[in-house]
Structures are given as C-alpha cells and as structure tokens.
Write a structure and sequence with these properties.
The protein is of the alpha+beta class and 188 residues long. It has one domain: 2-Layer Sandwich (Double Stranded RNA Binding Domain), CATH 3.30.160. It has 6 helices and 9 strands. Strands 4-3-5-6-7-1-8 form a 7-stranded mixed sheet. Strands 2-9 form a two-stranded antiparallel ribbon. A hairpin with a 2-residue loop joins strand 6 and strand 7. Helix 2 packs across helix 5. The radius of gyration is 20 Å and the shape is elongated.
Length: 188
C-alpha cells in the first residue's frame, strides 16, 4: 500500500501535477471596439487568431497571407517561454521540497493599419511553483494549475492591451452597444 502511494506521488510530481502558475495582471476595462475585421498573417497564426477572436475587439478574425493595405493586420513576433522543469531535489523528495522558477507566458504582436503599426506586448513574467505546496497556492484566485494562456484572464489581458493601444491612437470606433450585444449572445 505504501509503495502504491509513493508511486502515485511520483507520477503526480513528474507529470507536473504539482504546479502553480500566476495569472496575468488585471487591467482597467474599456468598451473600445473596432467594427472591422482583423487579418492574422503569421507563421503559426492559430493561437494568436484564437486569442484575439476570443477577446472580441474586432468584428471578426481572419487568417490570410494576402491582406490589403486598408486591413487591420496582426503579426506575432515573440512568444513567452513557459519551460519549467522539475529539478532533481524536488523529484527526489517527491515534491515535498518545492522549486520556484521564473517563466514568461503570452505573446507579443503588432497590429498594422495603413501606415500605423502598434506593438502589443502581452507577455508577462511570473513565478511558477513546483511541488506539493502548489496545491495550496492554486486555491488563490490569482493562481492556476493549467497553462495561463488558456485562461479567461489571459484573454481579458490581451483584450485590454489591444484596446489601450488602439483607443489611444483613435483608430477604432467606440460602440456602446457592443457590450450589450455580447451579453445577449452569451445569454442565448
């Protein structure tokens, strides 16, 4: 019985079952909305397209390699590096001695519209905790066991970053009804 518990603990520790990531910071909310599509033109466009589409800042998100000069075009230029590895001391002690490491998550990209280019840095550095203490940390609302870029907090983080950059440049259109439309579509 004791051996089974040890094996279960070892498997949990080695498969990153004992991990806690910080979620991105919460930014001030805005109702800025661009009533035009965004073209994603990158080497690996799917994750950026999915994130920006979920953020609901543009009327729609399209993946294409042939945008026109009048389109809003997004291109990714840097990704965060989430690469925590369980070191020997944490593995040997089966997660009893935790490890704290620094990682970066997210993506930096540009949005181009005409002659204007806006750099949006949606990468944040955070502390990742590996070991049994991470189960206690994950009770906190600012922590998660899963990859932070898959969270609704990350989608909101990217949304606020885009809204801040574009609203300060006065390139978008304010649409006060957009929030109401989103609520209706979610309620149906």
């Amino acid at each position: 019985m004791f051996l089974k518990v040890i094996i279960l603990i070892a498997i949990s520790t080695l498969t990153q079952g004992c991990v806690s990531h910080s979620l991105p910071p919460v930014l001030k909310e805005s109702n800025f909305y661009v009533n035009k599509p965004l073209i994603i033109s990158s080497k690996n466009p799917k994750t950026l397209a999915q994130t920006i589409s979920s953020a609901n800042v543009f009327s729609k998100v399209i993946i294409s390699n042939t945008p026109s000069k009048t389109d809003y075009v997004a291109k990714s230029y840097k990704k965060g590096r989430g690469n925590a590895v369980i070191p020997g001391i944490t593995a040997i002690t089966l997660g009893i001695i935790p490890t704290i490491t620094s990682e970066s998550f997210g993506e930096s990209f540009t949005i181009t519209h005409g002659n204007n280019t806006y750099k949006i840095n949606a990468i944040w550095r955070q502390k990742t905790v590996l070991g049994w203490v991470s189960y206690l940390l994950n009770i906190l609302p600012s922590r998660t066991k899963s990859i932070p870029t898959n969270s609704k907090e990350y989608i909101n983080f990217v949304k606020r970053k885009i809204q801040f950059k574009l609203s300060n440049s006065k390139q978008g259109q304010y649409n006060n009804n957009h929030k109401r439309e989103l609520r209706r579509s979610r309620n149906n």
